[in-house]
Amino acid sequence: MGFTVLVTAATGNTGRRLIPQLVDRGVDVRAAGRTRSPERDGVQQVRFDWHDESTFEPALDGVDAVYTISDPATWFTKSFEAFLERAADAGSRRVVLLSSFGVDHAPADDPMRRLELLVLGSGTVLRPTAFMQNFSENHWHDQVTDIREHGRIHLPNLQAPVSYISTVDIAAVAA
Fold first, then answer.
1. DSSP H/E element including 147
2. Dmax (CA) of the chain
3. Which regions in the chain score pLDDT beneath 70?
4. What is the DSSP string of 83-123?
5. What pLDDT does 34 receive?
6. How far is CA 105 from the centre of its chain?
7. What strands lie across the sheet with 65-69, from one edge to the other?
8. CA nearest neighbour of 94 among 6, 32, 1
9. Which of the 8 DSSP states describes residue 131?
10. Pairing of strands 94-98, 123-126
């Protein structure tokens, strides 16, 4: 029996890039989400929904580690805490949480900070800045032309330097 990692939000920005990196390393992957990720050898599909705790146990059964994101569905509920408890009960030894830059400076009652504090005792928290793919896959498409033509990015605060990171690199760190 190999090492198995549960990847929540398997079709998301980082999840869909993490899965092939894990498979290439010989890791068994359980792709969890409300929608199916692309079929691939070494990847088991499992239905998962933060609003339906009955999906937690089938997703967690037999996993050694978990990759998850700070999903808004978990911010105001006990579902994330219940999920972590069930992960520990199922034998998962490691949790990697994708959070967000600066959350470590938020007050303890901030929803995203609460998630981090739950994970920090037994896992790893990743806090990247902005995704580089925001310019090619998401809501900042209009910026691409200005980047190509003028070599600059225009955002509301021109004085604040921001380092953009590829979601491929985030997935590599998580792997």
1. helix 141-150
2. 54
3. 1, 74, 76, 135, 137-146, 152-158, 160
4. HHHHHHHTT--EEEEE--TTGGGS-TTSHHHHHHHHHHTTE
5. 81
6. 20
7. 43-47, 28-33, 4-7, 65-69, 94-98, 123-126
8. 6
9. B
10. parallel
Q: For residue 26, what are its two tokens?
A: 């010989």
Predicted pLDDT at 64: 95
Q: Is residue 137 within 8 Å of residue 12, measured between CB atoms?
A: no
Half-sphere exposure of 94 (CA within 13 A, CB side): 13
Give every CB contact of residue 10 below 8 A, 6+ residues apart in sequence: 16, 19, 31, 32, 33, 37
Tokens of 28: 């068994």
Q: Tokens representing 79? A: 């579902």
Distance between CA atoms of residues 123 and 77, nearest Å: 20
Nearest to 169 by CA among 25, 21, 38, 7: 21
Residue type, 9: A
Rounded to an integer, what distance in angstroms lies between the CA atom of residue 46 and that of residue 21? 19
User: For residue range 88-136, what is the model confidence (pLDDT) as tens digits?
Assistant: 988 898 999 999 889 999 998 888 898 899 898 778 999 998 787 776 7
Strand, coil or helix: what is 6? strand
Report pLDDT for 122: 77
Query: Can you give the pLDDT at residue 1?
Result: 53
Cα separation values, 100 from 27, 55, 97, Å: 26, 26, 10
